[in-house]
Amino acid sequence: MVRALLNVPKRARVGEIIEIRLLISHPMESGQRRGPNGQPYPRDIIHSLRAEFDGELVVELDLYPAIAANPFFAFTMQAEHSGTLSLTWIDDHDTVQTEHAQIEVA
Amino acid sequence: MIRRHFLTIAATAAIIHPAHASQAEIAALIRELAAGRPVAKGRITLEVPELVENGNAVSIVAHVDALPGEVRAIHVFANGNPLPHVLTARFGPRAGRPRIATRFRLATSQTVTAIAEMADATLHSDEVDVLVTLAACIE
Amino acid sequence: MRHALFALLLLTPLTLAAAPRSGHDDAGLSIQAMQDDDTQNPGMLWVAQGEAMWDANAGTGQRCASCHGAITAMRGVAARYPAWDPTQNRPLSLWQRINHCRTDHQGAEALDVESDAMLSLTAALGHQSRGMPVSIATDGPMAEVIETGRRLHQTRQGQLNLSCAQCHDDLAGHHLAGSRIPQGHGNGYPEYRLEWQTLGSLWRRVRNCLTGVRATPYAADSAEMVAIEAYLAARAQGLNVETPAVRP
To answer: Is the pLDDT of residue C10 over 60?
Structure first.
């Protein structure tokens, strides 16, 4: 599956607040749901997500099993100079995934 | 008859109860977060539909009436879920508006609470009561 | 006055059946927003995957794009399915058509209707026709297929002895438990159902209806399933393709 769809404006003005939208393909198995044999499916969620712009923190999320499957996140950042936005998330299998986007600020 | 009715309710409550966070559990979580500080109503706004057709993916937006840099974190709790903590968003120096949107699960009709933790260490909250309707034709 | 009201109540189901109404309009505003905004629509994850598969080698190396060109050239195609296939002398659903491409031309294995790969391809193709009217052929050999589907739609089935039409024609717009009964159109498939927490095919939804009335579900590859799909498409004329739709 395509891992994620990241939507960010390619260009921004200095000081502009821009919105970052992210859709991730992930079951977010809560560990609460039971299978046909009555046993719960093992928990498998993305438990943390971090957004940085050229190494500076934008937002950091601690996530719990209540987050929906194929999760969606939207938040904003303030653009002061051109650079690279990087989003990194980790799930219960310790799988680390990263998406990058270049933003031109003028 | 009345007694039997009461027993049914008591038995049902005993079965259902473990699947939901207790008020005490929520209160303990918020107490831990507050660490002695008062939690004032307002400044933060929680947007959740009041009537939800399916609790598997409910849109939620939490935003604080404040400038970038004035908010340290937003916490969201759902008191009717088996695990009440939904998320914590901590804002860094590059954050824009203090706002976070996502989709989350609601096990049943319940109260959702958002708490903003400001840079000046004050705490602000908002609550929404959500009604989750029962679907008929599910797999 | 009372008589007029009564007549209006009686007429309501007929009026509903005459004017197709998308399940989109029956859903809550937040679910509508989830479908309408591509940056929020989880079905777009499958569309993106299907578009990548279109341009990638499959089986012994033929890409979909090798014969068909860019996927954007497929605009309007999904809106015409199910369609009659003269070489096989039977109607094919879009996923069956894709499987014939795979086995006959690409040297690739056939995919299961509910596999992520097939849902991605059907979602990507359906998406090319989004906003275009559902426009299945209703003449020629398809006329008989649609008639078969119409009969199946009106046949009582299962231990509950209910037909599709009893709920989705006669009672559409009324409520069952907390849910509004939709007219049951297929114009948004594959669609993302919050209940499923994933994308799924029309076959999965029809199977859900049939097991719900305690009837034996149609096999995905059966003549009955294609006939029902064809009838639903003929019945949905006037609605636009919404793939990937989002429903509760």
So the answer is: no
